[in-house]
Give the backbone structure.
Amino acid sequence: MTPAPRTPRRTPPRRRPAPAPLQRVRLDNGLVVVARGNRATRSVTVRLLLEAGAAFDPPGRAGAASLLANLLDRGAADLDAQAIADGFDFFGISYRARVVHDSLDLQIRLLAEHLPQALPRLRLLVEAPTFPEEDVRRERGQRLTALAERDQDTYAVADEALAATVFPADHPYHHPVDGTRASVAAITRDDLVALHRRRFHPAGSVLVVAGDLDPARAIDTVAQAFASWSPGPAGGERARFPDAPRPCRPVVRVRPIPGKTQADIALGIPPGLRRLDPDLQPALVFNTVVGDLGLGGRLGAAIREKAGLAYYAYAPFASGLGAWPFMARAGVATDKVLRAVRLMRRTLREVMRSGLKTAEIRDAKRYLAASIPHRFETNHGAAAQLADCEFYGLGIDYPERAPGLIAAVTPSRVAAAAERLLDESCQVLVVAGPSLSPEELS
Amino acid sequence: MTDARLARRLTAPARPRVLRLGNGLTVLLREMRQTPVVSVWCWYRVGSRDERPGITGIAHWVEHMNFKGTRRIPKEQVVRQVELAGGTWNGYTYLDVTTYLETVRSDALEGMLRLEASRMTECLHAPAEVERERTVVISEMQGSENDPRTYLDREVAGTALQAHPYRWSTIGYLSDLRAITRDDLYAFYRRYYVPNNAVLVVTGDFRTAAAIRLIRRHFGRIPRGADPPPVRTVEPPQCGERRVLVRRPAGASYLQVAHHAPAAHEDDYPVMLVIDALLLGNPSTSLWAGRHGEGPTKSSWLHRALVQGDLASDVSGVLVPTRHPYLYVLQATVRDGIDAARVETALLAELDRLGRGDFGERDLQRARNQFLARYALESESPTELAHQLGFFETIDTHRLFLDLPRRVCAVGAADVRRVARARFDPDRRTVGLLRPSGAGDGSAA
């Protein structure tokens, strides 16, 4: 008889899960294919990312890319909408197309056994959509209803007004992804056909397949379906958008919406950072402290936790082919707007004056480095991370390199990034909801 | 692969190790070694159903207070220790359940168990924190009211249900949020947060034997409490259609059609999942997984009839697994220039097809395929599986979740006809219309 073991104080050390197998190839037509295996799952996510986001809408046709995305499955080559839908839906393959400013992405999520028949169908959708006139008309009508709904949404209106104020009218980020009523009403089928011809090419696009698969064999399956996608014009460099100008004095905009009990506040400071900016990691650390950790970082602590003014107060962080401004957001009761704006400004002023504490920087670095495995927990999460890394030229080894990059962030680099992100003299403040005069908010 | 084989292949990796501690705490454990994370969920069998007028919203507010520090863990450390382990944390409150979760690096498991054990027994509910949180919760309510559909949701649930406590929303009434006291909150917390009313779920990268030792160490000594009182009210049968009109500033008109849904343990529930697959596609049993921007499928009946039929710009529906019978609510956003009555007629015509049996075996096979694919997608990561096991164990038993693929695959055309005829009876229907204020008068209500 062996004596009962003493209860260990800690979980005993053991082997870590093996890293997921990962492969990347560039097909002859320029399409980059990335495959990641996760045999513990039964599903696969396929994500195809094209440099065809709203930033590439033709002049006066804001919303064209997102209408185009919604119409890809309404007819392709000799398949009509019903045949396409049935081909996905019968096997429980969920499909969606989505557009942001930089990119357009198609995603399917399915049981692994359906991958071989789903990929050729996806290829038809990107290569040969037919955009039936009837569906273009219907999609435009639905979009106009959706835009009327959006005009009632304080969060979306604040977002839109901030971008429209920060970015000049000819900037790719000036217009909302979904367009405006005037621009959407003007979009024709010809616009969509031309946009598709111009932006849908394998060169510069990324296809990630993640899930219950062997990477080498999955890449072969993808190649079979996509290798003959005609290359089109030689793929150029990734687009790079100019920085928004800094206004020479603070700007205040109010967008009243009747009948709202809550207002949305958005404060932006242009120009901010691009994704490939060398200061990206210190800027992320800075943003995490100011507007993310806990219930919204320092902003959340001041506006939600200490003053009890808001359910959310935080700093979203965005960076892409162009720079997005530093942003602070809060949703507060309409009669608490002035107080919340004062607290928001005071919090940022305090950060500018005194900087961040060493302990805050340490916490943020630990959080950012340690949270990477969690982002790969699901197949769609892994596909999104890898597609993003490849699209922005960070490399698919970026998630492995990131902890080292984060560790190398010093307090002085954070201070330098803060200097770039915050500037009291050029804040753009937008309030959506109550009818206040801009002077009250200045 | 046959449906039955596929169903077994999907449920085998979800099956947990089940343990009940002496104090009544139910523990579900499932090793999943694909990612170096563990997901810890602590569930309580308490939700807005356990409230009464005067204290509506209290279950949710208690959840907020339980992030505000305990006797051993200061407020700022509650989420900090999760974040330092690279984790995400959250909590939510709904009709039947309240839950707290952390998904963290696997070496941080014990810290999370310590946090949940402390949260179960020794939250502070400091009076100053209660007052600050009062306005935060009211702000949460007002934020959701910015979407005019919130008003319609409330009116339809409150009209279709006249007696059962599912009739008010989890956020509560404004008057109650203004009046609830610290003592109300603390008493509610102490009554429901006992181990015999809780379910602890741990999934991910750990060794079961070691995890059980840690769980016994942190939860084993918590004393059993009095069993909380059950909900006694049963909704009386509805006899006659109910209609409700809401007027709010809005960008469109919204139509809702609600029928009484079965509880998750009832035989009708898997049939309703098949019906939901036919009407909207890709039926979900997870409140957590989200739809990833995937709306109704394009081959679903309601999308074809309403959206492709130029009557609505959007259509959606919710079939939530619940302990007691709740509602199956279908919603359409009425297209500009279209009479809402036409949308209603077209929607009801699709429901009639179900009762008439106007569908084929291929429709049923599509519904089964969609259910099985969605089931896999919603349960294959540690966080998602822990949600599903915990949610079903809290409302009834996790075996209900494991048994769903088999039950859904057994649904036949006769079941669909029978359930549709009984449940979509016009006398048991509630129709709600939200019309933008300032527009013409409601004709549907």
About this structure: The longest strand of chain B covers residues 37-44. Confidence is low (pLDDT under 50) at residues 439-445 of chain B.
